[in-house]
Amino acid sequence: MNNNQKIKYIKHEDIDSEKWNRCIENAPNSRFYANDWHLDRTAVVWDALIWGDYEFVMPLTFRRKLGISYLYQPLFCQQLGIFPSPPNKIAAYFYSSLVKKFRYSDIQLNSQNQSVNVEAEVDLLSRENYLLPLNNDYKTISNGFSKNTKRNLKKANSNNLKLIAGIRLEDYLAFKSINLQINLGKKELGKLKSIIAFGQYKGFGEIHGVYTAENELCAAVYFCRWENRVIYMNAASNSQGKELRGMYFLVDNFIQANAEKNLILDFEGSMIPGVARFYGGFGASPETYFQLKFNRLPLPLKWLKRK
Length: 307
Hints:
Layout lengths: L2 H4 E4 L6 H10 L9 H7 L3 E6 L4 E10 L2 E5 L15 H14 L2 E5 L14 E11 L4 H5 L4 H10 L5 E4 L3 H9 L8 H17 L2 E7 L5 E10 L2 E9 L1 H5 L2 H13 L5 E3 L6 H8 L4 E11 L3 H8 L1
Parallel strand pairs: 4-5, 10-11
Antiparallel strand pairs: 1-2, 2-3, 3-4, 5-12, 6-11, 6-12, 7-8, 8-9, 9-10
Helix pairs in contact: 6-10
């Protein structure tokens, strides 16, 4: 069997869920986002490229518009790509298969899917995630905090803030809906609710909240534990929380509670300089992953998509 026969395009309804999730769970580059139950809640419509008997898999999150199928990155799915990370030659087969099947792509691979020689029309653009290993004791970790972070923590600790590890989903969503940093519609908030509810039900999701001295919620984060990563997956803060440095207080308390554990705090980005400084201020180091883009749309649409 040649390599072209080993790689197959499999429609969503024909994917073997048990084999798929086993492949994701056992992959050294396993990511929470690639489990079928997460993709069903975020992308809803997705197919896959599968090599052999689920030796390597790649979820394909796509939409159709004007009769054209295109790949996109769903919200709440920072890294997808190929699992486990294949040799470069096999990775190239996956990427060339995308070009044959789709007219446009703007998706994100995972950090173990390294840049390979691909067709000229495919661009692999580097992006940065931020990771903080928690295996050291708190004193050692906090020695890596920036001066700005230490200054903000000093302010936060003087504000009589209180941390609750395990606030209600309903309280978080109500708080999130009135303190959006990006515009999320009802559909996206519904997906977020489903993701968090499932995570809490399965025991790998938890919401931490910071309350003021007047017992008002001012900052909150949904953490998702997967393998040895704890993902800072979704956060919200109001103006009072920003003034009181509530998010600094929350992250610092999380680090204290989880220091000396074989865990990595995964901040999920960011390419926004101010947000990246916040993550880096806790001593987190950048991790590179790639955005895979190509544009084979008909000319009028191709020009529009460039804007």
